[in-house]
Amino acid sequence: MYQALYRKWRPRTFDDVVGQTHITETLKRQVSAGRLSHAYLFTGTRGTGKTTCAKILARAVNCEHPVDGNPCNQCDACQGIENGSILDVLELDAASNNGVDQVRALRDEAVYTPAAVRKRVYIVDEVHMLSTAAFNALLKILEEPPEHLMFILATTELHKVPATIKSRCQQFSFQRILPGDISVRLRYVAEQEGIQLTQEGAGLLARLADGGLRDALSLLDQCAGTTGTVDEGRILDALGLAGNLESARLMERIALRDSQGALEDLARLYSGGKDISTVLGELSALGRDLLIRKTAPRSGGALLSGNWDETTMRGLSESFTAPRLVWMLTVLQGVLADLPRSSNRRTDAELCLLRLCDERLDESVQALSARLDRVEQQLSAGAPLQTMQSNFTLQNSSEEEQKKAINSNSQKAEVLVSKKMPAQPQTVAEQPVLAAASPPAAPEAPQQSEAAKPMAAPTPDGSFWKGLVPALKDKVPRNAWSFLGNAGMVQGVLEGGVLTLWVDDELVKGVVSRPAVMETIRTLAQARLGGPVRIQAKVGKAPAGEAEPVHDKLDDLLAMGQRFDNITIKE
Fold this sequence. Notes:
The chain has helices at 5-8, 21-33, 50-62, 76-83, 100-110, 132-143, 163-166, 179-193, 199-208, 213-223, 232-239, 244-255, 259-271, 276-295, 310-317, 322-338, 345-357, 365-381, 385-393, 399-419, 463-472, 478-484, 506-512, 515-529, 554-566, and strands at 39-43, 89-93, 120-125, 149-155, 170-173, 490-495, 498-503, 534-539.
């Protein structure tokens, strides 16, 4: 009968164990010196050799002719333990024997001396599955065991094991096996089994195993079921994976914000039998590598998965910013977590790609941060102000208006951002103002204080407000000044002892009409006029006949940013 590769090629000595030298060397020295503990606790992820080392240790402590701490596997004790004929070495599954009654029966039986070997060994796999009462029943015999008794406990979830159990055991932590070590072992097994496994295919299987040699052997067993050479293409087809090139191509679509192309690629992969969750998982892995490369370009090389070549990583890394990658990974991880409960996985994946290609479709804080980062990127690339404003206003415009705005402004900014090309020289009239994001400096103050200036005559043309605005700069909060100092958003008209502030919308009105702000404006206005003044704020434009004030366009950008500071975003 055919035997699975991971069972057939299970190591029989400590020297055969791959990637756990720090543990096997210690156990070999303990066996050779006879300094054995009565209880061991093996921890680590699946497929790293916990149960294998437990079985080797059980044979080594009972071997009649050990070789440098390794079992000889030839004596009666080794062969009896290996084929299960010696009942003094017993392997238990705590997942199915987790009750207190089973542990009590084990405790009552453990006091008897072994019949055929020197040590009675109990290997308890997945020990974290024991109940609280079962752990309590095990605690006493684990604390003061007989001379002939040894416990070897194995678990993948160490945090579920009580501290009273851990403190009575020698704990060994099994590490994830490096892809290079797994690849070498796979090539050896394939050669012995007559499987034509290429070096690239072995590397791909090693990366897919995620540090577990058992998983790698199982994947090799699955891919070797068909005739021919086991290379990367055959592995991707056999396992239903999209592949590194496909995931990199899909990430390029997202970088270019090509929603149509991303949906077409997903449809092609879906029609080819690729699993939706696997496609998104590979996209998430690529996004993680890009984020690590972006945030730690020098020391982060050891943290990369190594699934993508340097040229691909360099090209994609230049197309993304760190805030956008963080947001993308948040979206992908959320969708992947919800896919098992989804009624239509393909639709969820398509919605996910649409959000990744267009941040405006996502109302989260991370998406807003990515959009603001894109504005900063366009500023550094020399994009005009109108283009940046369109990033925030286009989503509320009609389809025809969106097309017109994209054709006139956004296309140029997108090319500048994606290709990292410097902006073309512009005339003085066309050059955007790229000053620091701070309010425009007020006119140089004269020696005489603002409050002591001669009283201005009430005029209905707004000249009184123009003279009053500079005096408000250092006396009102910064968020209010960003609106009051913008002549395009707030205009003041004095008529009949009433100063009316005509504002752009309700948001601006809510900021400038705060009691503290209105009281400051009223105090300065009364000092100028020498009499009482009433202040009111209204939404709309100044009365007809008022000349459109001239203002710096940088004020529009500052006020636009202030709007987002005052918006409470609902998760």
